[in-house]
Amino acid sequence: MAHTILLVQSGANPETRTYSDYESVNECMEGVCRIYEEHLKRRNPNTPTITYDISQLFDFVDQLSDLSCLVYQKSTNTYAPYNKDWIKEKIYILLRQAAGHTDYNF
């Protein structure tokens, strides 16, 4: 459980910058999924059930102006930065575990 700060910039304008903090990397990755789900709900307000696949989630991540994490490193008492590719890898692992598969192909 490493404290994790999620930094998001959804558009070119610096005023779209936000941050969220989480108790763990996995909670943070779930937060990224929730951000995408909220995005889908805003775009499809009359759809009762929203489904998506991991490639759509990754396309959303890629189109964000900036998405990065700062993960607390207890050994150095600092935060280490991680980029979109790292975030996508962690989301992939999280969703694979949630699906109960170790060799599931998304």
UniProtKB/TrEMBL annotation:
<dbReference type="InterPro" id="IPR035912">
    <property type="entry name" value="EHR_sf"/>
</dbReference>
<protein>
    <recommendedName>
        <fullName>Enhancer of rudimentary homolog</fullName>
    </recommendedName>
</protein>
<comment type="function">
    <text>May have a role in the cell cycle.</text>
</comment>
<dbReference type="InterPro" id="IPR000781">
    <property type="entry name" value="ERH"/>
</dbReference>
<dbReference type="Pfam" id="PF01133">
    <property type="entry name" value="ER"/>
</dbReference>
<keyword id="KW-0131">Cell cycle</keyword>
<comment type="similarity">
    <text>Belongs to the E(R) family.</text>
</comment>
